[in-house]
Amino acid sequence: FYFCKTQSTLVSPFYFCKTQSTLVSPFYFCKTQSTLVSPFLFYSLLKWGSKMERDIIKLTVVVICFIIAFMGKKSAINRKDHFLLVLALLATVAADYFLLIPRNYVIGVAVFCFAHIFYVLRFGGAKSWRLLPLALPLPVILLFLNHDILIVVASAYLSLFMLSYSTMIHAVRHKKYPPINNILIFAGMTLFVLCDISVVIFNAGMHGFYNNLAIETFAEHIIWLFYAPAQICLAISAREFTNKKVVI
């Protein structure tokens, strides 16, 4: 009941417009994060409901983050920046659907690659598409060596994520965005990295690379505790908080 109430509150256009001016408040922002993340403390840690129900709730949170980003067009610091963010989050929703519902990991990870392509274009600027070939060598080599297709796609994802994170660091260091947006972008992408590290640790345990059930279980539980706040930060990172427009 609480989670359904939270969804309807966050998605309400009226409430979202009303809270635009208060999102920068540290107290309100932390409260917003805890409201979205708290269901995972119950559904993930306490294992309430079926796995399908928990996966649907996870996907719903990502959809909510996409809606929040999509509704911020009029208050965006830059229309192009906002458009690329929306495309990245749309790809994220699609990727999480394939990973959580039909559990098609090859398609899910492949679609996630597009999310990071959009983040490279967002953080890197007009000519950043020239950086994308840098992500090709590793997956091409693995494909040539006849590795499993999932390994090849995962290597492409890793390469693109490293590229998107490095372009983000460059953008933040050169103050491409206003201070609050820089903080949100850095926090979102860094939490994203921590989430993926947790995924690697969990899957390594699942496939027998180490034998420690406690570490494997802990990694499984913290994946979405990193991932949900990461998507929240990124979802509002294109919004104008300081009346300072950005030229991309």
Order of helices and strands: HHHHHHHHHH
Largest sheet: none
What's the tally of helices?
Answer: 10
End-to-end CA span: 42 Å
Question: Residue ranges: pLDDT <50 for 5 or more in a row?
Answer: 1-27
Described by the principal axes of the CA atoms, the overall outline is globular
What is the helical fraction, as a range of percent? over 70%
Rg from alpha-carbon coordinates: 18 Å
Summarize, please.
The chain is mainly alpha-helical. It contains ten helices and no strands.
Could you please describe the fold and organization of this structure?
With 248 residues, the chain is mostly helical. The protein is built from 10 helices and no strands. The relative contact order is 0.13.
Question: Which short descriptors sum up this protein?
Answer:
mainly alpha, 248 residues
Secondary structure topology:
Layout: H1 2-11, H2 13-18, H3 26-43, H4 51-70, H5 79-100, H6 105-124, H7 137-144, H8 149-173, H9 179-206, H10 213-235
Helix pairs in contact: 3-4, 3-10, 4-5, 4-10, 5-6, 6-8, 7-8, 8-9, 9-10
